[in-house]
Amino acid sequence: MHIQYWDWLSRVIQGEFGHSLRYKKSDSEVLKERFPRSPQLMIVGISGAVGIGILLGILSDRHSENWVDHITRFVAIALVRNSSSLSSLDAAAPREFE
After folding, report:
1. What pLDDT digit, counting tens, does each position of 49-87 carry?
2. For the chain, where are the alpha helices, taking DSSP H only?
3. Residue 47 belongs to what domain range?
4. CB count, 10 Å around CB of 48?
5. Alpha-carbon distance 73 to 79, whole Å?
6. Is residue 57 part of a domain?
7. Domain count of the chain?
């Protein structure tokens, strides 16, 4: 088992990740095609999170210890708490239109 792992690790270090059964080509080719989209998605995701966070913070400050403050605090905590769960749901979603 450790020999198989060492063989796999040495190929990964050289940039050979194997063959994608889904796309019928090497995984390194798939990564080269899809990696440029990652920074774009990261910027959009961070911008949205910061925008929502600022909006909730302003609402919470304007209506301190009011029902609006309690709701915005609940929403903010729920979003932070469930962000990893939402990401995993997206990763597990079927991709029909690729």
Report:
1. 889 889 888 888 888 888 888 888 888 888 777 666 656
2. 2-13, 27-34, 37-62, 67-92
3. 39-84
4. 10
5. 10
6. yes
7. 2
